[in-house]
Design brief:
Length: about 190
């Protein structure tokens, strides 16, 4: 039987020590970072940051633009209300559009013309313009319509608040009145915003 040489045998403890990592060292091999890949990651991250900042700036600008637009609309509405209110006390004249007498659609056409908006001299034609507004969302400057002479929008006025309007009435001339009282509230047809 051949003799085994002990000098060629490696003790088991030495093998274990070589196979296991040193205390505190990671058991997984360290990955070498590919330099071009790291630069690409940084470029993508910078690009994402730039896009985020750009999107935030655009959103802020959109808000500013919306606020300016709303302010212009409110000023225009106030001008229309002022133009109609300035006619309070003028008489009613069928088919008249001012400046000394008005019918209902003549008054609204006159007031909007002061802001450069042309309206037809007919309440039903005006009812087809702009966009519909719910009764709860009426604001000054909206057109408010009533059915005072048969079905449909036979009378029109300009809202001065959610519950009042200026209109040229055959019984009292140009006046401010409620839009929710027993008479006008029962005749309400709808409102439009131009």
């Amino acid at each position: 039987m051949p003799r085994r040489s002990w000098r060629w045998l490696v003790p088991t403890t030495t093998l274990i020590a070589c196979a296991l990592p040193c205390a505190g060292a990671s058991a997984t091999p360290k990955l070498k970072v590919d330099l071009p890949l790291a630069q690409e990651v940084q470029r993508v991250e910078r690009s994402a940051q730039v896009e985020t900042v750009r999107a935030l700036a655009e959103r802020k600008q959109d808000r500013r633009d919306a606020a300016r637009s709303e302010a212009r609309e409110l000023r225009a509405s106030a001008d229309v209300v002022d133009a109609a209110s300035a006619q309070i006390g003028d008489g009613y004249a069928y088919g008249a559009s001012g400046p000394d007498g008005f019918d209902c659609s003549g008054l609204t056409a006159y007031a909007f013309a002061q802001r450069g908006v042309a309206l037809p001299h007919n309440s039903q034609a005006q009812y087809a313009m702009g966009k519909a507004v719910s009764r709860e969302d009426i604001r000054p400057g909206d057109l408010v319509f009533f059915s005072t002479a048969g079905p449909g929008a036979s009378h029109v006025g300009i809202a001065t608040s959610r519950t009042s309007a200026v209109s040229a009435t055959s019984s009292g001339g140009v006046m401010e009145h409620s839009t929710t009282d027993a008479y006008w509230g029962g005749q309400f047809v709808g409102a439009r915003r131009l």
